[in-house]
Write a structure and sequence with these properties.
The chain has a 6-stranded parallel β-sheet. A 6-stranded mixed β-sheet has the order 7-6-8-9-10-12, sandwiched between helices. The protein is built from 11 helices and 12 strands. With 341 residues, the chain is α/β, with parallel strands linked by helices. The protein is globular.
């Protein structure tokens, strides 16, 4: 049976657009041509929209094993929705919901819920019993969702009042930096971005980088901390400014995401620097393309599909038989050593 991801790829649209069309969600307009293309793709890949659970009650102390109607909001902008990191997580969410007898009413992005009317519609008029939040959204929208959605499971969010699924970002970063240190690197730069705190020093992957450097007695140079704001173009341009002066550049970079690492590698390549002989790279995510970059990228493998699947199962289990306290599930990660280090 096909998936939303396969329908989106076949139709050439985002997964959120497919979700709105197959669930008859009118919170954002979709052209008739696009709708027709999506329904043709549904037939072509054999996707079966799951309508189960629409009439299920909104809450109660315990739920029988019937369809659980859920929704999902992803903390990315609409134009960056087809992200190689988020896409496998969404696939895991969809598969997990289906395998445990639930239905996915919608997948929306943080861009979708900027308008209060749209947020009200998808939260209160969709008949959902629970919601999965994929990373942090703006505080006002989050508080509204907490007030009106009975059960929430977060993926990589910081609220201890809700059940959470994710991985230890700080320890993953330390593992990556310690790998560079074990290869003899002493001058290591950082490429990343800040979270909602707007302070890169508070971001967990930066904190992991700093802890590894501090424990090894290595200095951190301010000019080698690249705040690319999670933007691949900025990662490229800012790293380019550094590598244009080879005598003053680090011998290695730790990047907080594969996407930023790959664009930074391009900047080094254009300066005719050899990777890893002149500058090495290690990052986090292990997106599908990482093993096909030139050279193949060393990175921390994050079990993205499994994170989504576990979050989906946790939500369905919570709706049917609520836990007495919020749970926190931390999945393992693994260092994938390839040719950039």
């Amino acid at each position: 049976m096909g998936t939303l991801k396969e329908v989106a790829q076949h139709a050439g649209v985002s997964i959120s657009t497919v979700s709105r069309v197959v669930n008859n969600d009118t919170s954002r307009s979709v052209s008739s041509e696009t709708r027709q293309r999506i329904w043709e793709a549904v037939t072509a890949v054999g996707y079966q929209p799951n309508r189960a659970g629409k009439e299920t009650g909104r809450r109660g102390p315990s739920k029988p094993p019937t369809g659980v109607r859920t929704g999902c909001i992803v903390a990315v902008n609409q134009n960056k929705y087809n992200h190689p990191y988020f896409s496998p997580i969404l696939e895991g969410i969809e598969r997990g919901i289906q395998e445990h007898g639930g239905s996915l009413a919608f997948i929306h992005t943080s861009e979708d819920i900027k308008t209060p009317e749209l947020l009200h519609k998808i939260v209160q008029d969709s008949g959902i019993e629970g919601m999965i939040l994929l990373e942090s959204i703006d505080p006002a929208s989050y508080e509204y969702i907490k007030r009106h959605v009975p059960y929430i499971v977060g993926i990589d969010i910081s609220d201890p009042a809700v059940s959470r699924v994710g991985y230890d970002r700080l320890m993953a970063a330390k593992l990556a930096v310690n790998h560079l240190i074990s290869r003899g690197h002493r001058q290591i730069g950082f490429i990343g971005g800040s979270g909602r705190s707007q302070n890169i020093m508070k971001e967990k992957r930066f904190r992991g980088y700093k802890e590894a450097m501090d424990e090894a007695g290595l200095a951190i140079r301010k000019e080698w901390i690249v705040d690319a704001e999670w933007n691949v173009d900025k990662s490229y341009s800012l790293v380019k400014n550094i590598v244009e002066k080879p005598a003053e550049m680090p011998t290695a970079f730790f990047a907080a995401s594969d996407m930023m690492a790959i664009s930074a590698m391009r900047a080094a390549f254009e300066q005719q620097l050899r990777i890893p002989q002149d500058v090495a790279f290690v990052s986090i995510d292990d997106i599908e393309f990482a093993q096909y970059s030139s050279p193949p990228l060393s990175t921390i493998h994050i079990p993205k599909f499994e994170i989504g699947w576990v979050a989906a199962k946790t939500l369905v289990d919570t709706v049917r038989n609520p836990y007495p306290l919020p749970v926190k599930i931390t999945l393992p990660f693994e260092l994938m050593i390839r040719q950039t280090s």
